Amino acid sequence: MTTTSDQSVSDAVTAGAHATEIARSGASNLRGAAGGGADPARVSAVVGAALEGIRAAIRDHKVTYEEFDAFKQWLIAVSDTGEWPLFLDVYLEFEVEKVAAATQQGSIGTILGPFWLDGQAQLDSPATLPMRDDEPGTPMILAGQVIATDGTPLAGATVDIWHTDADGWYSGFASKPPAGNLRGVVRCDDQGRYEIHTRKPAPYTIPLDGPTGQMTQAAGWSPWRPAHIHLLVSAPGHRTLTSQLFFTGDPYLGNDVASADKPELTLDPQPTGNGDQVRSDRDFVLEPEA
Length: 290
Description:
By secondary structure, this protein is of the alpha/beta class. It has 2 domains: 12-28 and 83-286, Aromatic compound dioxygenase (Protocatechuate 3,4-Dioxygenase, subunit A), CATH 2.60.130; 40-80, no CATH class. It contains 6 helices and 14 strands. It has helices at residues 12-25, 40-60, 65-81, 84-91, 93-101, 211-218, and strands spanning 122-124, 127-128, 139-148, 158-162, 183-187, 193-199, 204-205, 224-225, 229-234, 241-247, 266-267, 270-271, 278-281, 284-286. Strands 1-5-4-9-10-11 form a 6-stranded mixed beta sheet, with no helix packed on it. Strands 2, 3, 6, 12, 13 and 14 form a 6-stranded mixed beta sheet that branches. The longest helix has 21 residues, at 40-60.
């Protein structure tokens, strides 16, 4: 990822390979139970509509053979770099999330994205995320409570949290941060309360050295994501909430390449009086499983 402080780019092949491995294993499918076998009528309807949309674009814009061949080469490049999870999560997942949100209660969510990793440090609240001794960035506390839709505190709730460092790099998807950096699964107390000490993340671009970033730039679209914190909030007997939290004043709010930012998910961290440390409080409401 390109960042505000480091204009070098990540290794798209490395990041893509890791994201593809996670997607292939199904480990990132944390947003609901898997469906049954494929319904031929539904496959026909959805795939047919998608193909007709592409055919309509070809007709409406009079796509040439040169452009068609370039498109095929681009598809091959996306496959070769393993960037399908990145491309799909950036440009399509937000629409799937809208469909899911229409029938959900509790706190508002957003997309998962391609950079979640399983098997991270298990921590009790109050918790400090794993980080380097000289971890850059503004010290930050994120705290709150996990409750049910009826207001009951959810003992046993967990907050799975991950985000970039202050230079915009995700551990596990770039060589700069060590493994597990700024990632953890925090166990709330018996009142569903959590407190997480970390560093404020930075805005970043999607990888620009791969086909997804190259297509984005060729189209003249912004490749930037506002600074954000990823969260999976869960409790026994309740639907897992997939969310991200953003920050007031970020220059890329409203122009997120992944279309994932929402005003309801914006934090306004305030100084704690302890050096340059800031704090935000955010409660989460989980709905019962169906």
